[in-house]
Amino acid sequence: MARNKNLIAASKAKEDEFYTRMADITDELFYYRKFFEGKVIFCNCDDPYESNFFKFFALKFNAWRLKKLICTCYDGSSIAGNELPFDELKEPNHRKAYKYELTEVSDLNGDGATDLLDVRLFLEKHPPELLKGNGSFDSEECVALLDEADIVVTNPPFSRFRDYINLLVEHKKQFLIIGNQNNITYKDVFPLIKGNKVWLGYNAGRMKFVIPRIYDSTKKNIKIMPDGTIISSMGNTCWFTNIPHNRRKEDIDLYRKYDPILYPKFDNYDAIFVKSCGDIPMDYDGCMAVPPDFILHYNPEQFEILGITDRDNNSGQKTKVYTKSDAPNYSDLNRRGVLKVGSSYKLCWPTIIIRKKK
């Protein structure tokens, strides 16, 4: 039984391999350049050189005045060593976990510039160091490297996002990481957002990732490029960070006027229901329940986050708990905000309860 569980876990891990394109990395990290000078950067879910995160920081190493770049690769990665085939990393049908530390990028080929060719030459002369463990971000070796780092930048396994971000917060690290927007509402992520310990980056929406193989041939979001590269397009993807940026200081423009008919009040929360961020009324000072994508536009100087409509009363605004006498699906009703339409109850999607500050 234990062996079967391990096989299932390994299969899920492989289906977590989504490799970020250089264009998406560049578009986001451009806004944070000043924070990287003199810092140790850790990409702890990345194979050196094959990873575009490694390539990005290697290219920017001198211009951004980085102190050190550390990358680690987990045991069993399907791409580890593909571009630079180090024999010591290979076993039959297996890849070993290893790390690479870059402390300088010099003009090794003498062409007057420092670029990825120089990095490649350096890697060929200085093979990466094998790790004793499996290279997982929460392994003893990788946590020790995490403690050495200043900023973590990567695309962690989507299935372990909650474990990953909580490890970074626990170790008090600055970070820029990619995740699904659904993580906003998770019980161990939302408190970080509410407490202004984590927020979203500049870019969000549909992103394209390179995948090593097609996991599900029935999905329509897969495209095979002429060179054989497999691209998977994923919506609701965003950057999570705790590094300051100017977009957080931008107010949401409010121009709607409150109307009790257009903004019905929840039956079980002391809050009105607002369908979208663009519909937030400018003249209502009470509690409002907005969709989770509000976090994309959230300015903590403009609004206060009180909580989320969930089973517990984390916002302090819950006014009613349903019983079997109210409705057969009373348990479901207690999970979310509810609108009463006549004698019927309408269950709404998870909403974030906010209140204006100014």
Order of helices and strands: HEHEHEEEEHEHEHEHEEEEEEHEEE
Q: What is the share of helical residues?
A: 10-25%
Give the end-to-end Cα distance, rounded to a whole number of Å. 58 Å
Q: Average pLDDT, to the nearest integer?
A: 85
Radius of gyration: 24 Å
Throw out a few tags for this protein.
358 residues; disordered N terminus; four-stranded mixed sheet; alpha+beta
In words, what does this structure look like?
- This protein has helices at 2-14, 22-29, 52-60, 116-125, 140-148, 161-170, 190-194, 330-333; strands spanning 19-20, 40-43, 68-73, 90-91, 94-95, 98-102, 129-130, 151-154, 174-180, 199-211, 222-224, 230-241, 272-273, 288-290, 303-308, 338-341, 344-347, 352-356.
- It has 358 residues and is α+β, with helices and mostly antiparallel strands.
- The strands form four sheets. Strands 1, 2, 3, 6, 7, 8, 9, 10, 11 and 12 form a ten-stranded mixed sheet that branches.
- The chain is elongated.
What is this structure, in a nutshell?
The chain is α+β, with helices and mostly antiparallel strands. The chain has 8 helices and 18 strands.
Task: Write the topology of this structure.
Blueprint: H1 2-14, E1 19-20, H2 22-29, E2 40-43, H3 52-60, E3 68-73, E4 90-91, E5 94-95, E6 98-102, H4 116-125, E7 129-130, H5 140-148, E8 151-154, H6 161-170, E9 174-180, H7 190-194, E10 199-211, E11 222-224, E12 230-241, E13 272-273, E14 288-290, E15 303-308, H8 330-333, E16 338-341, E17 344-347, E18 352-356
Parallel strand pairs: 2-3, 2-8, 8-9, 13-14
Antiparallel strand pairs: 1-10, 3-6, 4-5, 6-7, 9-12, 10-12, 11-12, 14-18, 15-18, 16-17
